[in-house]
Amino acid sequence: MPSKPANNKAPTGKTGSLTDKAYLELEELIVTLRLQPGEVLSETALSAQLDIGRTPIREALQRLSREGLVVILPRKGILVSEINPGKQLLVLEVRRQLERLLARAGAVRRTEEEREVFLEIAAGMERAASDNDDIEFMRYDSAFNNLLASAAKNEYANRAIGLMNGLSRRFWYVHYKETADMPLCARLHAEVARCIAEGDPDAASEASDRLVDYVETFTRATVNTGPTG
């Protein structure tokens, strides 16, 4: 089993519960393939690895199950879910609408504290991409997703986008070295973050569409050249 991930340097907002901590660490391990698709997971082993109690681990795994990153088989075990490239375009149809809504609402409703964190994330993503540090890039991506959902102050959109973030992030990580441009992706994320920080809903909405346009182009190239299982 892979070693415990290094401390996440990307901003994560307020300190959450042990379940939140377990979720963030497990999500990163799955999304960055340190826990492989099809791998059998053990609550006891994960608890020891992450130095977090079994109850938070169990609750985090239940959340990951709702998001499609693990499969819980009663009386049989817990598996990391397989990757289905063919479904990513369907995911993007929904993401486009939700991310546009979240970007627009975030630009109107974000707090001053959130404004500063958006700017920090924008700079951090660009720095990570420039350094070709894929793990740090993924951590800033996670922080961006969480802040985008929080700043919009819309619990329903927040719940909906949460069901897709992990699957999208893992798909990106699996294929980005083949067909993606990490510096460009970082710049497009940074544009959304800075437009929200500036409080410009129209610009934030347009920047969000440009980001999803790019991700869709990347996804189509991947689906057309890779396996479709």
The largest pleated sheet is described as: 3 strands, antiparallel
Contiguous helical run count: 9
CATH superfamily of the largest domain: GntR ligand-binding domain-like
Distance between the termini: 26 Å
* Cα Rg: 17 Å
CATH topology of the largest domain: Four Helix Bundle (Hemerythrin (Met), subunit A)
Overall body shape: globular
Percentage of β-strand residues: under 5%
Number-wise, the strands total 3
Share of helical residues: over 70%
The unreliable regions are: 1-8
Q: Please write the CATH class name of the largest domain.
A: Mainly Alpha
CATH architecture classification name of the largest domain? Up-down Bundle
Mean pLDDT: 90
Walk across the major sheet and give the strand order. Answer: 1-3-2
Structural class: mainly alpha
SSE ordering = HEHHEEHHHHHH
Number of domains: 2
Describe this structure in a few short sentences:
By secondary structure, the chain is mainly alpha-helical.
Report on the structure:
This protein is mostly helical. It has two domains: 18-80, Winged helix-like DNA-binding domain superfamily/Winged helix DNA-binding domain (Arc Repressor Mutant, subunit A, Orthogonal Bundle); 85-225, GntR ligand-binding domain-like (Four Helix Bundle (Hemerythrin (Met), subunit A)), CATH 1.20.120. It contains nine helices and three strands. It has helices at 18-31, 43-50, 54-66, 88-109, 112-130, 134-152, 155-179, 182-197, 201-225, and strands at 40-41, 70-73, 77-80. It is globular. The two termini are 26 Å apart. Mean pLDDT is 90; it is low at 1-8.
